[in-house]
Structure formats: structure tokens, C-alpha cells
Specification:
Length: about 775
């Protein structure tokens, strides 16, 4: 790579972007104007913000409620029951007649008030109903408290010792006024909340009055006073939590947005202007072109993020100084944000550059922003959830790890940030390298750079889909099948409840496997011309397939201890959900081990291998990248599992099984491996101390662990070495390549495509 060429391309792209008025407006002018204008709008709107009075209908206001401590004063709630003097005027009371109309009771009036409150635009926003005997209930309760304290009967000593004893142990029921409101109306909900606050304060006063009547200090009902000291105010870090959650999110969003629009202009825009061909015909290599464009996009992404974040922090800090959340972010916060901005801008710039290269026009390129945002937004919002902290497991999640690290640094917890900084940096750099490699690969494909605009005719497309079927599915069919399986399984999980018995577990497991295999089989027979070739069944000689089956069984036995270690490590990184333990208890309710073996180690391997290593892997191999097809199929396979620990282990096992499928060219070794692996999982979970006594040789293989039994480290090491030897044997097998894979090999070797016979090219 010649850096002089990269420098020339970089200067060219920067000049083009600086000449674009739309880019300059989005990057420079908009951040400087947006946040001050938003702050002005907030200030102006706050001037019009006014709390409106609500109307409350009071039913059963007994004169007793006017005595000390009085609930009402001057036809309103007592002013002392409000936190501020303005609160008295916010509740306009309308009292019902003390004597109900003829033929009606207070309860009837309460029912009528319910109808009026529930009615939209009714005369009252809320109502308060005091039962007709509310004052008597209040007095009886007070006497009951006095009797319980002194040991006397409420009715009198002449009523007998039995009744006296019952009165001492039991109190009369607590009086309960009823607040009537509807949460379907915001004003009614507000009125109900205000009345509730007033009645609660009045109830506390009644309680203190009862204590005073008994000769007790009112402070006896509240013997402890809690003092709170906010150290953030003393240290000058008030509001750091607010900024620590907000600034990293803003940083990532603007870094993504700032990278996307220049990337679209540098790729799709150049296609429209017709200047991309001139650049590609220059002496610069494709990798040099990509690096030059990538650095240009990074520069504009960082400038956009810095200007937006700086203007927002300055404006927000000044605005927040007049609000309960006080304090502006510290200068050190911006240092950490700038350090994290470099790798995140590189990651987003590479992703945007690769996506923009797919677009035929600027308009089409803008459509690709939404899927990218939909993927990045949940990862950026996860740290905002309560209880999510920076741990080793979370530090391995892309985008989330950077937000968590920034939040920890902005909160001042440098010890925790230092512990997990290395895995966060390593994972972020790995994602950057993969994204850059993807962008370079996109620029090496002429079919991507020079895609022509086309209109979709649904009728012709369906006719081509069914009448011009290929022996194996296309990449789009494979991806569609994987997505369909995930969507169907998601809706199945929403419509089913957690099994309460082993019978329920059997039904759910069988339905789940039908959901997995059905889309693959339907698409196989409807959209391909050779179902056996699509499902990798019947390829090659049966003798070679049988040898591969025995080798796959040996590999499953050898690699199983390593898989257990990996799954144990995953369970330590991420907490095990409660459903996993409950599910394990249901396995123990199986009538016999054979039924459990059929349910877990026979049916799922057949169904899942037909779907993932059959239809999906056959289609993904048309990308021309064997390992990419294996990994993507393994990711689809892992996402169908319920728990995160299972998903991580399933992806690892899926990669191994996919490699067996490619190298052997047959699905039978994959099914055999999957069956043995699941069977060993069940066997290990079924080991008990009694099993060790009956089979003493197992003591040489397993040992006690926190969750049951695990393999000895000697077995793990020996199994790993044996697995490496078996995988080496598989790597020596000559596998049948697809046309696209042979073409990619020819390109990598620098040989013309005509030197190697190709049946048909996807290019």
C-alpha cells in the first residue's frame, strides 16, 4: 500500500466534501444552531407551563371532619395539608348535600359520581366518598387503640371477660375513604394523585392526634429520622450520573450519523456523478481507495460528533444550572469522550462505507441508514437500563462495551474502568478490522460497484423463482429461511407458557422443532430442483460418508469436554436465567432416560441439521466464502436457542458442525455429531454420587463442581488434542467447491477466471 496514493485520495475527497454545501450545513452549521434553538424553545414553553385546577366532588363530608385535625377549611382542603400554598387552589371542591335526596343513599351518590368521572368532559375530574358511618368508624378505631393500649374493653367491663379479651387482641377495621378517578384521563389522574397526597397527610395527623390522646409523644410513630448526605454536591460532581448516561449515547449517535451521509456521497454520489470509474481506473489500489475514503469519513464523523456534543453540553449545562439537575460535565469527561470517539468513528465509518457501496444512488443509500440504526440503537441503549454495569461479559458486547466504559469513566470509577479497558479496546478494534475488511471486499467486487438500477416486476420475479429453479438455494433464500425460523420461533415463544410438567415440555419441544425444520423443507421442495443436493444428502459414496460419520462421532466425544469448559465460562460471564434451572428440574421428571434422550438427542439434531447445515448452509456457500457461510449458519443456529449461554456454545458447536458438512459433503456426519454431543450433555447432567459408586471408572473422568459434575482438566486437554487431530484429518479431505468458491480462489491466486472451468458464475 502506497501512503502517497492514500494521501492524494484523502485530499481529493476532503475537497469534494468541503465544496458540498449540504455536508457543511449538516456538520458545522446545524450543531451550532440546533441546541441553542432547542434551549430557547424549552425556555419559551416553560413560560406557558401552568398547572390547572381540578374539580373534585366530595360525598359524605361529615361535620366530624371539620374538627381537629380538620380536613376541610372554608370549603377547601386545609392549607396545612399541602406542600406549597399554591396547591390549595388547584383542588376545587364541590360538596354533596349532607342529607341524600329521597330514595337515595350516599352509596348511590357515589355510584352516580363514578359515572360522571368516567364520562369524558364530565362535571368532575375526581370524587371522594366517605361512607355514612365514616365518623363512627374513626371514633371506634380510636377507642379500640385506647382499649388495646390500656387492656380495657371498648364496650365496658360488664360485658364479660371473654369479650374483653377479644377486644384487646383485635382492632376495629381502619376507616377507608374512596378516591374515584380514571387513569384514562390525565386531568382526572392528576386530581386523584393530589387528593391522595392530601388524605395521606391528614391520616398522619389523625394518627399523631390519637397518640397525644393516649398520653404518648407523636414522635413515637416516627422514632427514626434519616439524614442523607450527597457526597456529589460536596465533591462538585453533582449531575455526573446524568451526563455519564447522556453524553456517550449522544456521542455514538452523532458519530454514526456524521459518518453515514459523507459515506453515501463518496460512494453512491460518485456513481451518480460518474466520477467513480475515473478513480477506479487510477493507479491506486482498491485498498488505498478504501483507506482514503475511510479516513475522510472518519474526519467528518468526528467533527460532527465533537461539534454536536460540545454545543449540547454547553447549552445543556447552562440550562441545567437553573434546574434540579445541576452542574455541567467536567473537562476530563470530554477527554475520555474524544479518546473513545476515534475507534467508534472508525467502526461506523467502515460500516457506512461498505453499506454505501451497495447503493445504486444517493436516495437508495439513505434507506440503508435505518437498518444500521436499528442494530446499533439497542446496543447503545442497553447501558441505560438499571443495574447494567461494566463486567467482563458486558465488555465483550460491541458498542455496549464502549458506552459502559465511558459511563464508568465519567462517573469517576477509574478502578473498574481500568480492569475492563483491555477487553473493551480489544473487541472494539476487532470489530473495526472486520468492518474495514468488509469495506475493502465490497470495493473489490465489480458487481457491487457497478450495479444498475432495476425495477421489480413481481409477476416475472415469481415466475423466475419457481420455473427457473437452481439445484441449490441462493444466498437470499438461505438468509430468508434463517430469518423466517427466528421470527416463527419468536412468536411461538410469545404464545406458549413455561411448561409445568414433562408432558408440556415434550409438546413445546416438538412444536419448536417443527417450526425450525418446516420453512427449510418447504423452501427446499418449492424453490430448488435437487432437494437431496440442497440438503447435502446422497452426495459422494456411502463408504466415505460412513467413515466420516465414525470420525464425527469420535470428534464429538473428544471435543465435548472443551465445549463444557466453554459453556461454564459463558455462564460465569453472563448470569444464568431462572428459567434454565426450572427447565433442568423438568428434565428430572422424565419417566425414563430413554424418553429424554429421544427428545433432546434424536429429534433436534435431525430437524436442526436439515435446516441449518442443509438448506441454509447450501445457499450461503454461494457467497464464495466457505468460512463466512459456516459462521453465518452457526449464528442462525445459535440464535434459535433460548438462553444466552446456550447461544454462545451453540455458535461454537455450529461452526464445527458446519466445517464437517463442507469437508465431508454429507449431512449424516453432522447429524451423528449433534446426536452424540446432546447425548453426552444429558449423560453428564445425569451423573450423581450413586452413579460414581456404580461405575468407578467415571471417577477418572469427572469431578464435582458448583453445578454438579465436570470433566477433569486432564480429560479436557486430552480431548482438545484428539479433536485437533480429527479436525486435521477432515481438513485433508477434498471437498466439492461451489462455482463461486472456485472463482474466489482463482481471484485470490491472481489467475484469470478463464483458466479454471466454471459451470456458471454468480457474477
Amino acid at each position: 500500500m502506497k501512503w502517497s496514493n492514500v494521501r492524494l485520495i484523502l485530499s481529493r475527497e476532503i475537497r469534494d466534501q468541503l465544496r458540498d454545501r449540504r455536508t457543511l450545513f449538516m456538520i458545522v452549521v446545524l450543531p451550532l444552531l440546533l441546541y441553542p434553538l432547542l434551549a430557547m424553545c424549552v425556555v419559551q414553553v416553560s413560560q406557558f407551563r401552568k398547572e390547572h385546577a381540578t374539580k373534585v366532588f366530595v360525598i359524605g363530608a361529615h361535620p366530624r371532619l371539620l374538627e381537629e385535625p380538620a380536613l376541610f377549611e372554608n370549603n377547601r382542603f386545609a392549607a396545612r395539608l399541602f406542600s406549597s400554598p399554591e396547591g390549595v387552589a388547584l383542588l376545587e371542591l364541590k360538596f354533596a348535600p349532607e342529607t341524600p335526596p329521597p330514595g337515595k343513599t350516599l352509596a348511590d351518590m357515589a355510584d352516580q359520581a363514578r359515572q360522571q368521572v368516567a364520562k369524558s368532559g364530565g362535571p368532575y375530574d375526581a370524587a371522594v366518598y366517605f361512607p355514612s358511618d365514616f365518623a363512627e368508624q374513626l371514633e371506634r378505631f380510636r377507642q379500640g387503640v385506647a382499649a388495646r393500649t390500656s387492656g380495657r374493653d371498648v364496650v365496658g367491663e360488664a360485658d364479660g371477660a371473654t369479650k374483653k379479651k377479644r377486644a384487646f387482641k383485635e382492632l376495629p377495621p381502619v376507616p377507608r375513604p374512596d378516591i374515584i378517578f380514571t387513569s384514562a384521563n390525565e386531568k382526572s389522574q392528576m386530581a386523584g394523585s393530589r387528593v391522595l397526597d392530601v388524605l395521606q397527610r391528614w391520616g398522619e395527623e389523625v394518627g399523631r392526634a390519637n397518640l397525644s390522646a393516649l398520653g404518648l409523644s407523636p414522635s413515637a410513630a416516627k422514632p427514626i429520622e434519616v439524614a442523607a448526605s450527597d457526597l456529589a454536591e460536596e465533591s462538585g460532581r453533582s449531575g455526573s450520573v446524568f451526563w455519564a448516561k447522556l453524553l456517550p449515547l449522544i456521542l455514538l449517535l452523532w458519530a454514526l450519523t456524521g459518518a453515514f451521509y459523507p459515506a453515501v456521497d463518496l460512494c453512491a454520489g460518485e456513481k451518480e456523478r460518474g466520477t467513480l470509474e475515473t478513480l477506479l481506473s487510477s493507479p491506486a489500489q482498491r485498498s488505498e481507495i478504501v483507506v482514503g475514503k475511510l479516513v475522510t469519513i472518519m474526519i467528518f464523523s468526528m467533527i460532527t460528533a465533537i461539534l454536536n456534543m460540545g454545543t449540547m453540553s454547553l447549552t445543556g449545562g447552562l440550562l441545567m444550572s437553573h434546574m434540579p439537575i445541576q452542574g455541567a460535565p467536567s473537562l476530563m469527561s470530554f477527554v475520555w469522550l474524544f479518546v473513545a470517539l476515534v475507534p467508534m468513528s472508525a467502526l461506523f465509518s467502515a460500516l457506512c462505507l461498505a453499506l454505501a457501496s451497495l447503493a445504486r444512488s444517493t436516495k437508495e443509500g439513505q434507506y440503508y441508514l435505518m437498518p444500521l440504526v436499528m442494530i446499533c440503537m439497542p446496543l447503545a441503549l442497553v447501558p441505560l437500563a438499571p443495574g447494567v454495569e461494566l463486567t467482563l461479559g458486558n465488555s465483550l458486547i460491541p458498542v455496549t462495551n464502549v458506552v459502559l466504559l465511558l459511563r464508568t469513566l465519567l462517573e469517576g470509577d477509574y478502578a473498574t474502568a481500568l480492569r475492563f479497558a483491555l477487553p473493551v479496546i480489544g473487541m472494539t478494534l476487532l470489530c473495526c478490522l472486520l468492518a474495514i475488511r468488509w469495506a475493502v471486499e465490497q470495493f473489490n467486487k465489480e458487481s457491487v460497484l457497478f450495479r444498475e438500477s432495476e425495477r421489480l416486476d413481481v409477476g416475472l420475479w415469481l415466475q423466475h423463482l419457481f420455473h427457473d429453479r437452481r439445484p441449490t438455494p441462493t444466498v437470499a433464500m438461505a438468509v430468508l429461511c434463517g430469518l423466517a425460523i427466528l421470527v416463527f420461533k419468536f412468536f411461538l415463544s410469545l404464545t406458549t407458557t413455561f411448561p409445568e410438567s414433562f408432558g408440556d415440555l415434550v409438546k413445546i419441544a416438538l412444536v419448536t422443532q417443527v417450526v425450525v425444520v418446516a420453512p427449510a423443507l418447504v423452501m427446499t421442495f418449492a424453490l430448488t430442483s435437487h432437494p437431496l443436493q440442497t440438503l447435502s444428502l446422497g452426495r459422494g459414496s456411502w463408504r466415505n460418508a460412513l467413515v466420516a460419520v465414525f470420525a464425527a462421532i469420535a470428534l464429538a466425544v473428544a471435543i465435548h469436554p472443551v465445549a463444557i469448559v466453554f459453556e461454564t465460562a459463558a455462564s460465569k460471564l453472563y448470569p444464568t436465567p431462572e428459567g434454565a434451572e426450572a427447565l433442568a428440574r423438568l428434565f428430572g421428571k422424565a419417566p425414563n432416560f430413554l424418553s429424554l434422550l429421544l427428545l433432546i438427542a434424536v429429534v433436534p439434531p435431525i430437524c436442526e441439521e436439515l435446516a441449518f447445515r442443509g438448506f441454509i448452509l447450501s445457499g450461503l456457500r454461494h457467497t464464495g466464502r466457505k468460512w463466512r457461510a459456516i459462521v453465518v449458519a452457526a449464528v442462525f443456529f445459535g440464535m434459535t436457542h433460548a438462553f444466552l449461554q446456550q447461544q454462545l456454545a451453540a455458535v461454537l458447536i455450529g461452526v464445527v458442525i458446519g466445517y464437517l458438512a463442507v469437508q465431508s459433503g454429507n449431512l449424516l456426519p453432522c447429524i451423528a455429531y449433534h446426536m452424540v454431543h446432546n447425548g453426552l450433555m444429558l449423560s453428564l447432567s445425569a451423573i450423581t454420587p450413586k452413579t460414581l459408586r456404580e461405575w468407578p471408572f467415571l471417577n477418572w473422568m469427572v469431578e464435582r463442581s458448583e453445578g454438579g459434575f465436570a470433566y477433569h482438566w486432564v480429560v479436557v486437554v486430552a480431548g482438545g488434542m484428539a479433536a485437533a487431530l480429527i479436525l486435521t484429518w477432515f481438513s485433508l479431505l477434498t471437498y466439492q467447491k461451489t462455482d463461486e468458491e472456485r472463482l474466489q480462489d482463482a481471484i485470490r491466486r491472481g489467475i484469470k477466471a478463464d483458466d479454471e472451468p466454471l459451470a456458471s458464475s454468480a457474477m
